[in-house]
Amino acid sequence: MEKVIKTLCRMCDDHCGIDVTVDEDKLISIQGNKEHSWNRGRVCIKGSRGVDMVTSEKRIMKPLKKTEDGFVEIELEQALDEIAEKMKFIQKTYGDASVGIWKGEAIGFAQQEEVARRFIHAIGSPNYFSNDSECFAGRWLGYSLVYGRWNAQPAFENAKTIVVWGGNPPHAHPNMTQQINRAREKGAKLVVIDPRYSAIARQADLFIQVKPGSDGALAWGVAKELIDKGYLAYDFIRDYTIGFDELKEYAQKFDYDYVAQETGMDAATMIPEFAEMIKESMSATVFYVGNGLEHHENGINNIRAVANLDGLVAAVDAKGGNYSPIGLPMGELTLYHEKPLKELHPIGADRFPVLYDFRQEYHTMTLMDTILSEKPYPFKGLILAGANPVLTNPNTNKVRAALCALDLFVVRELFMTETAELADYILPAASYLERSEFHGHGGKQVMTLTTRIFEPADGVQDEYQFLHDIAHRMGAGAYFPWENEDALNEWLIKDTGVSMETFKANPSGYNYAEPQYAKYADNVAKGKKAFDTPSGKLEFTSTYLKDLGYQELAEYFPPASNVVDPEYPMTMITGARKVMYYHGRNRNIDSLRSALPEGEVEISKADALKMDIQTGDWIRVTSKIGTMEIKAKVMEKIEISEGQIQITHGWKETNVNLITHDDRFDPISGFPLMKAVQVKIEKM
Ligand SMILES: Nc1nc2c(c(=O)[nH]1)N[C@H]1C(S)=C(S)[C@@H](COP(=O)(O)OP(=O)(O)OC[C@H]3O[C@@H](n4cnc5c(=O)[nH]c(N)nc54)[C@H](O)[C@@H]3O)O[C@H]1N2
Ligand SMILES: Nc1nc2c(c(=O)[nH]1)N[C@H]1C(S)=C(S)[C@@H](COP(=O)(O)OP(=O)(O)OC[C@H]3O[C@@H](n4cnc5c(=O)[nH]c(N)nc54)[C@H](O)[C@@H]3O)O[C@H]1N2
Ligand code: SF4
Ligand SMILES: [Mo]
Questions:
Q1: pLDDT of residue 443
Q2: What is the CA radius of gyration of the chain?
Q3: Which of the two ends of the chain, N or C, has the fewest CB atoms closer than 10 A to its terminal CB?
Q4: Among 35, 55, 75, where does a domain finish?
């Protein structure tokens, strides 16, 4: 008897509503849930292929322990006992902080992230790591430094001008593309800023092709234009911002000539055109920043410079601007209020203090150095879940060396990966259809509880159960009083005013609140700060940053790649998403792999002609970090500019992170240089 069960897709972090058809305990198919307000029945190519992932014969279903003869299967109880014993031994020998936990993109955020933080803190270590050392936290920091800790969500559907700045939603966020399309049907204009003529760029009313890492110059040029033309939200600026005079003065440097020189664009034509569009929409302008701005040595200031534009036109908490959704008061799982963290000496909190202040997490690149150098203290034990840093962190050779140097390396996975191969123990993880957790949906005030459609097989555990079992074995059980994930979920919603029955009755999402705009004005009316910044205002200038030795204004520093290095004359972008893959994932799903069977370097026709390169030729790419080899794909049109190449990460055979930088960072966020890497290329 077939039946359809509603839950959320987790083949990416977009959480589309899905209808899962099962026959007894057999998974038959996955389709879009038409009733879910987020995706309205659509799923992408990965979503439906979730069937192949969950039922894959390649899945690891028993705990594995590394021995001299390779990996052998062991019982779960033995694995848990041994891991807990070794963790205790390491802490006793080298200190409490010598162990850590690392949560990857696949586990997700919210409760899964908080459980991981809680665990490591409960056993006395502050060392929590995640993919956020190179993802999203850069954008969040950039915005939060301007607006205060602020969850900026693009309200595309009500926008009149949409600016996609360094993102490519058709590949990376299919639902955003739908939202953008719906706004455009109502007349919204689309501006895309990207070095590549990407899928979204092809749909733009105005496409601005910039050199990688030069976005700050464009943002300041736009600020100058808005100021010169008087296209400003004067009342908002007067009442709710600080630093406008300084901003106005600094912007003067960004005339058309300077912006053209830095970005390579036709600034004299395009900046006025861009500003006219903004004038038509003002607070209904969405400036949406993607991952393209984060992986740079000047990333945060560039993002701050874009966030400043929100302030100039009051596209802040606005219908059609960047909106900060009202949250549900879920139970707080982290222990920061109970146990002071700084006293536990998190690795290098002094190196990137802003990252630490805002995120209470540390930096995976520094972790590699710490493991190898044992400075400032030995770090010997790591639990890693839902990540594959051998493919996804910069400088693969160092990542491998560091992970191999650990005394205890535990990986929680569905599959044998390049990272799992280095582990002492591999523990089989529950897939998204075998666990139950809460997820919110972008700027919508909708929360969905996912359905555990299948019980995890013997030996397979969800993340909570595993950490619960280890914590209890290590004497930290008091922090994990909830017997299982369901009990935890009950606790999480206890103060929300929404019952479990309500969530279960609404598997297509429970809409707990209506949007509320301009909350900063309400805050003032209630005698509170308008924004959660030191000044209480939106900060064009930050004394917090100044006091830490950074620039008070979002000053622009040209990327190193803007000056051609004769030894490494090309600029490499990495990581442009492909819809069928997710970082290192899905290469083992034949139905997805057939669409793009191998990695490739995208190169302009002009460069290919100069070097006599044709599609399919092998190319050697070298940076100061290392060398890799990969086949060429010659781009026919303006997809990529002369002097630039693009390589998507996530390929085992052609791993671009062999040559990305773990030694060059944005100084505020610590994000690595992965999108304006200076390289040379040779035909092999
Ligand atoms: N299918 C698929 N979807 C994904 C992912 C995946 O791996 N696969 N990953 C998910 C994750 S974790 C993330 S963080 C998001 C990322 O989401 P997006 O940021 O939308 O991802 P990308 O497709 O890489 O788009 C980045 C764009 O920035 C451009 N770019 C590169 N450098 C610069 C620059 O200096 N300036 C400007 N203006 N643009 C630049 C690139 O050419 C590219 O088109 O995607 C998520 N969605
Ligand atoms: N050069 C370059 N490198 C990049 C980027 C770039 O743009 N350029 N982008 C970076 C970004 S933005 C990010 S977010 C990171 C992401 O990098 P990671 O955090 O390493 O994420 P994934 O590669 O998606 O790794 C997820 C792993 O989790 C496993 N997995 C899948 N489902 C589950 C599950 O339910 N439970 C468990 N326990 N495991 C599961 C998968 O099999 C996979 O091996 O990559 C970064 N790396
Ligand atoms: S965008 Fe695709 S992979 Fe991501 S949640 Fe939706 S259907 Fe799943
Ligand atoms: Mo990411």
A1: 83
A2: 25
A3: N
A4: 55
Does 306 lie in the same domain as 169?
yes
User: Mean pLDDT score of the chain, rounded to an integer?
Assistant: 96
Same domain, 460 and 483: yes
Does 150 have pLDDT greater than 90?
no
CA of 632 from ligand 1 middle (Å) equals 21
Q: Is the CB of 583 under 6 A from ligand 3?
A: no
pLDDT in tens, 86-110: 999 999 999 999 999 999 999 999 9
- State residue 457's pLDDT score: 97
Please tell me the total count of domains within the chain.
4
Which residues, in sequence order, are bridge partners of residue 241? 538
Q: Mark whether 50 and 68 lie in a shared domain.
A: no
Mutation choice for ligand 3 from 46, 176, 589, CB with most ligand atoms inside 8 A: 46
pLDDT at 638 over 90: no
Would you state the pLDDT for residue 49? 97
Cα separation, 299 vs 139, whole angstroms: 9
DSSP codes, 235-276: HHHHHHEE-HHHHHHHHTT--HHHHHHHH-S-HHHHHHHHHH
Q: Is 216 contained in some domain? A: yes
For residue 158, pLDDT beyond 90? yes
Q: How far apart are CA 202 and CA 286, in angstroms?
A: 19
Residue 78 identity: Q
Same structural domain, 169 and 224:
yes
| CB-ligand 2 contact for 135 (6 Å cutoff) | yes
214 and 267, same structural domain? yes
Half-sphere exposure of 11 (CA within 13 A, CB side): 28
Cβ–Cβ < 8 Å for 190, 162:
yes
